[in-house]
Amino acid sequence: MDIVFADRAEAGAMLAERLAHLRDPVVLALPRGGVAVAVPVARRLGAVLDVLVTRKIGYPPSPELGVGAIAEGGEPVFDHQLLRRLGLTAESVADVVADERRELARRVETYRQGRPLPALAGREVVVVDDGLATGGTARAALRAVRAADPARVILAVPVGSRATVEALREEADEMVVLATPEDFRAVGQWYERFDQLSDADVLGLLAEA
């Protein structure tokens, strides 16, 4: 089914209904856009909401092209097939990884201000983003969460590429995706309003939750 959401809040409210069977989960949002989706999810479930910060590892000549990603508490997760195609190795992008680790640490401090992540061991954990394109940051996030020994990991997104959704199924115990359009090109095309969020926006949403 193809859906165009008015905005992230509407998408989150619709996603929350599909997650209403969960009892006492921890909801982790991938900043920045995932936070706006996760707020109505956490509110509907009466759940703890926090962020799990991720960063894309970009191809040096064209940083928008992701060759991997890293999540707080986890190790870099690379697309090794793409690295080989570009004639790169994990070692050859070590400087990019170091830069992204620094930015990741800055965002963790900005968003969490010294608080640790909620305890995840033995809990159901819902990882929320606003959509799945290549899935690199979601994969890194899921692996970082898995390393914390949760009872179950659920990946919940309003919309995603069909190929990416299928590729990520092995990373999560459950996938909740509202729409996987055939002509998926970018996450933003499935939202009427898809504003870029700032750090201040994220902090405001977390305070609201």
From TrEMBL:
Transmembrane segments: none annotated. Residues 20-175 form the Phosphoribosyltransferase domain. GO terms for molecular function: glycosyltransferase activity. The keyword Glycosyltransferase applies. The keyword Glycosyltransferase applies. Signal peptide: none annotated. InterPro entries: PRTase-like, PRTase_dom. It comes from the Bacteria. Keywords: Glycosyltransferase, Transferase. This is Phosphoribosyltransferase. It comes from Nonomuraea cavernae.
